[in-house]
Automatic annotation (TrEMBL), chain A:
The lineage of its organism: Bacteria, Pseudomonadati, Pseudomonadota, Gammaproteobacteria, Alteromonadales. It comes from the Bacteria. Keywords: Kinase, Transferase. One of its GO terms (molecular function) is phosphorelay sensor kinase activity. Gene3D superfamilies: 1.10.287.130. This is Histidine kinase.
From TrEMBL, chain B:
The keyword Nucleotide-binding applies. Keywords: ATP-binding, DNA-binding, Nucleotide-binding, Phosphoprotein, Transcription, Transcription regulation. The lineage of its organism: Bacteria, Pseudomonadati, Pseudomonadota, Gammaproteobacteria, Alteromonadales. The modification 4-aspartylphosphate is found at residue 52. GO terms for molecular function: ATP binding; sequence-specific DNA binding. This is DNA-binding transcriptional response regulator, NtrC family, contains REC, AAA-type ATPase, and a Fis-type DNA-binding domains. Residues 3-117 form the Response regulatory domain. It comes from Pseudoalteromonas lipolytica. Residues 135-362 form the Sigma-54 factor interaction domain. GO terms for biological process: phosphorelay signal transduction system; regulation of DNA-templated transcription.
């Protein structure tokens, strides 16, 4: 039960970076579609990369927690 | 352009959403928790709120409660991380609350911000004031009515409402009940619908076994309305030989259930209603005089709709708004249509107006926003009334004039069909043609 709850929490936390990735990708699309300054797109892409990293770490944590049991 | 508030503790996510929402042409502010969000609402109003379900200082639902408390109703989109929460949210949320599941996409945001047009209109809805929560109208006659309602609400006097059919007697009864500081309910009953045998049981209740079929004890309407208001509609349609029963309750303020022995105190205000005129009451012996004076301690005349034509646009807007809200449509009146409604006489009063609008609403193309009024607003009843009104013969008219008027009126009624008109007039078709020719040709009745 407890185990299940902690898994839910970890999955929930891992969705946060995915959410940021999704919105930053949308922003990049907007920038490209509307010929806006490319710095904006680059900054968003950097955030996407950083959040991919973070998401990966969180997935690793889930894996660690639930294989060590 | 909308005013949007984003409530989310993820600042990076908030930043990006701000960019996107601003790009979509809207104003956006952010709050990182419930406390900040509530602060924003202290001095601002928002059209739309994006609300994270889980916030550091509580659930997003708390903000919904807070908004209700302070009387603000922006459109709200709850954002949750669990797809499973979505179903639960759908169950408990009201019409103006939507939900999205993370991760979000731009289309999601665009979609929830765009049907917004309907919502800005909803905000203008309260511009039509409902006096006492029910009555619509700003004409002088209605303001006089409001004053009377206020005065009588402060007392416990019995009220008799008089007005034409469809003028809103039950609505006025509700208004008086709303304006009265009482704890009990409003109980409405139609005296014309009682059967002679059951009227006593309806009004006063009965004990178990009082008569065949009385399988359980039943409370009468006087008891049901304890501490509140009893609305006796069409009181003059109650058989006159049953009226003494009513008189006893009104005088003694006590009822005894049919088949019972114990008297019970009655403490409700009685509002009665009739669509008969005072003359009618006096001449036709439909109500006993003693009952009349008990019921009509404070008589109120409800004006007919044609006496307050300036209220028609207000009423028309209110009814259409209600229909739009119920059906998720976006119909609007054109000024010329409101004028057309205003020029009609509405012998069936507000009820007829409301039905005409409903009919027009059903006939209108649901894809458009223009409402289609029927070619003729007349109902079968309005035609009858009009005829009786216009077919008055004045002294001094020549027989020829009256005859001409009669022939034209008959032809109008049968859409110019001369064979039927001649039959109705009791003359031959040939005579009808001769008459029309004598009046200067068949003209419009070709």
């Amino acid at each position: 039960m407890n185990n299940h709850e902690s898994l839910r929490q970890l999955v929930h936390d891992a969705r946060a970076p995915l959410n940021r990735i999704s919105m930053n990708a949308e922003l990049v699309k907007l920038v490209l579609e509307n010929d806006m300054p490319k710095e904006k797109a680059l900054a968003a892409l950097d955030k996407i990369i950083a959040n991919c990293q973070q998401c990966s770490e969180q997935l690793q944590q889930i894996s660690d927690t639930h294989t060590s049991d | 352009m909308l005013n949007v508030l984003l409530v989310d503790d993820d600042s990076e996510f908030s930043d990006v959403v701000c960019h996107i929402v601003e790009f979509l042409g809207h104003n956006i502010n952010t709050a990182a928790n419930l406390a900040e969000a509530e602060q924003w609402f202290e001095n601002n109003t928002f059209d739309h709120v994006f609300l994270d379900f889980m916030l550091p200082d509580g659930s997003g639902l708390h903000l919904l409660e807070h908004l209700k408390k302070i009387g603000q109703s922006p459109r709200v989109t709850l954002i949750s991380g669990h797809p499973s929460v979505k179903g639960k949210l759908a169950e408990m949320c009201e019409a103006n609350v939507g939900h999205l599941v993370k991760p979000l996409q731009r289309e999601d945001i665009e979609r929830v911000l765009n049907p917004k047009k309907a919502n800005t209109k909803k905000k203008s809805a309260p511009s039509i004031k409902r006096h006492f929560g029910t009555l619509i109208g700003e004409s002088d006659v209605m303001h006089k009515l409001y004053t009377m309602i206020e005065r009588v609400a402060a007392t416990s006097a019995n009220v008799m409402l008089m007005g034409e059919s469809g003028a809103g007697k039950e609505v006025v009864a509700q208004a008086i009940h709303n304006a009265t500081a009482c704890d009990g309910p409003l109980v409405a009953t139609n005296c014309g619908a009682f059967s002679k045998e059951l009227i006593g049981s309806e009004l006063f209740g009965h004990e178990k076994g009082a008569f065949t079929g009385a399988v359980a004890r039943k409370e009468g309407v006087f008891e049901q309305a304890a501490g509140g208001t009893l609305f006796l509609d069409e009181v003059t349609e109650m058989p006159i030989d049953m009226q003494p029963n009513l008189l006893r309750v009104l005088e003694n303020k006590r009822v005894t259930r049919v088949g019972g022995t114990k008297e019970q105190a009655v403490n409700c205000r009685v509002i009665s209603a009739t669509n008969r005129t005072l003359d009618d009451l006096a001449q036709n012996n439909v109500i006993r005089e003693d009952i009349y004076f008990r019921l009509a301690v404070f008589p109120i005349d409800i004006p007919a709709l044609r006496e307050r034509k300036e209220d028609i646009p207000l009423l028309a807007n209110a009814f259409l708004e209600q229909l739009n809200e119920e059906n998720g449509t976006d119909f609007k009146w054109q000024a010329s249509q409101l004028k057309e409604l205003e020029s009609h006489d509405w012998p069936g009063n507000v009820r007829e107006l409301r039905h005409a609008i409903h009919r027009a609403f059903i006939m209108s193309d649901p894809k458009g926003s223009a409402i289609t009024l029927p070619e003729s607003l007349e109902s079968p009843f309005s035609r009858v009334n009009k005829e009786t009104q216009t077919s008055q013969v004045m002294a001094g008219q020549t027989i020829e004039e009256v005859e001409k008027e009669l022939i034209h009126a008959t032809l109008d009624k049968v859409q110019g069909n001369k064979t039927i008109a001649a039959q109705m007039l009791g003359i031959s078709t040939k005579t009808l043609y001769n008459r029309l020719n004598a009046y200067g040709g068949i003209g419009e009745y070709k």
